[in-house]
């Protein structure tokens, strides 16, 4: 039997599977298939493999040619089963991969005869931009193109379908006990990931469902409680054994990201704000580090700021555990969404602005010091959602003033994620969709996005990564319009623009020389001042255009002569970064 898994990439409130991330769904699917049919040949293909193959065949220019492209058509022609995994619920901007939608993959797989199965969060639809409402068209298309649309857990359906197809239930959920084997067996699919082993971050699941939603219901727009009606915490030993399997295969970058709140792992239910369990979190991360001692990235994702603000002692213990066992550059995304208390009440949001402020302050105190890779150890991110029911002009201003307070008070936030709400079926917002007025507020949204980017993001970024900081292990990922764009491996890594062409898919240490609104400019170090272009020379701190001209005229220069030509205040920064 031949099975083709097509990864269309997933992005949802509690999980990410867009490269360099390898999400949970392809791994679990692979494991279920191999447990059901050990002899099966299972091929992992990405949507970029299909784009490169079929768009290339049609004469359409594509930059996504991959090593798999010559055999993609052959695999699909021979496949007995074709599994497509997709679903984009929290659309964002991606550096080197673009998630697919059902219309696209349907066009590619239409000629092939294998049984077609759709899995992942795609059954609820996908949105490539905020401010939209999912229509019945995409959902109807899924039912017309695929022989089976899986509404429950894909891995459970695949195992049943391949062992006893008549009893396969597309709505069945699996337990963590059932998942254990799928996760460990499925680890080996990582070897088929295009950028394995150096440039893959594996997303690890620890929990599903929303603890806050179990107490008072979920946020109006969120698909997590709409998909999972209860909260289930994955046993520590199951997480550890999966990490060990991946680590033994060569994976060195992990994000414990598939959960709604890492501070609520194995927490005690308590209405709106569960009571955190620091012992369980410490045991989890100590266990991971015991089987992955030389891990290069160990990060997390989401956290509910209300938990941290209401239980500061327990939360400080958890934060310290994340620092002790994790790696620098770690970010916990806080779902504030809107600072207007009226909007918060109407949409049942996670936390108040005051709770979020206290949580930001606590994490700054515990995790604000700079780590060995140039980034602070552990900082918050802030998620903002525009277009929610109940918003007024005052709501936008209150949210802006909240962010300005963070800036004015000297606090650091790694990133501010602004998106427009998407209305998905099954969420409370679906029943309030007539109250979503993104078009009405279009000018307000544009104005405040601009205002936040210019007045908050830019000075915040300068505080976070001052000129002269050296970021370690920046992967050069994309070349576009005269710049190399790179980033560190991790949770919400900063985009670094490198103003020179260097080989891609290598790691560089980079001296930060300038700031944009959401990205920074850096020069690989050590810097050879006798070979650098005028463009790069003038960006070196303490140089500028005039000194760059003088340096060019006097080259070759010794290291000592060069340092005498720069401003005295930056000589200390540059002295170990210059080579002749």
Automatic annotation (TrEMBL):
Domain Radical SAM core: 196-455
Matching PROSITE patterns: RADICAL_SAM
Domain of life: Archaea
SMART domains for this protein: Elp3
Gene Ontology molecular-function annotations: catalytic activity; iron-sulfur cluster binding
InterPro entries in the record: Elp3/MiaA/NifB-like_rSAM (IPR006638), rSAM (IPR007197), rSAM_horseshoe (IPR023404), rSAM_sf (IPR058240)
PANTHER family in the record: PTHR43324, RADICAL SAM CORE DOMAIN-CONTAINING PROTEIN
Protein's name in the database: Radical SAM protein
Taxonomic source organism: Thermococcus waiotapuensis
